[in-house]
Amino acid sequence: MIVTCFLIVMNNRLISSCLALFFFCFIVFTASTSQPSTELIVKSFPLPEEDIERASEYIPYILKHTNNHNVSLPLVLAVIKAESNFNPDARSPKGALGLMQLMPETAMDEYEKLNISVSKEQLKKQLINQPELNVILGVKFLQHLEERYADIADPTLRRQLVTISYNAGFRKVKLSLKCKSNSCVKLRVNMFGHEYFERVMRNLPVETRNYLVVVNRAYKTYADLLASSDRKQKFGNNCPEEAAPTNLLTMSEQSFKRLSCPTNG
Predict the structure, then answer these.
(1) May I ask the CATH class of domain 1-145?
(2) Which of 74, 107, 181, 206 could cross-link to 223 by cystine, CB 3.0-4.6 Å?
């Protein structure tokens, strides 16, 4: 009798997990099919030439999930560029997987917040086979890091803390700052600024310091492209430099079409 009840419970859990996973995949699929075409995106969002072939396929859901979670788009693009160079099959010697090179443990933490039960082996396969899922979980992880550092006053320092935490983990960042708490990190960085940050960066692994350099370089490239492209959409090639850039792309095709140059009269 006990064995029978146990099997029924386990069977119900399995059915629930399968149904949850099915509905999640259905939502991802239907949302993806409503995205604007790659051709329209590349035209509206001029990628660096070296990225066009690799990145254009993934731009629709990078934009969608970045906007959905209010995360810096240039940073997401820069992280993907540095982590995998837009290769969805990328695997690191340490076990990081996919476009955003997520460690399975980190991905599992983010996945469980979606209330979907999945085994670690299943998740590893999905991180490679479902690039959009990889982006969803990676963007959510960046979102949590950005929220963690939301009280850092300087936006450049805030972004750099997010970047090194994505690579090395928050614990190593706290150790490098000789802090035991998040409040200590905020206090010291806000009080002592860039010089202090540059000094304590020496306590981080060489890999993380190099990673920050690569991401910063890519971030500037994408941020400049976003600002330049947005001005051209509004003003044509004679775009005034003082025009303030806005959030370049929204996720509907009609929104893309409205980003056309103004006509006289």
Answers:
(1) mainly alpha
(2) 74
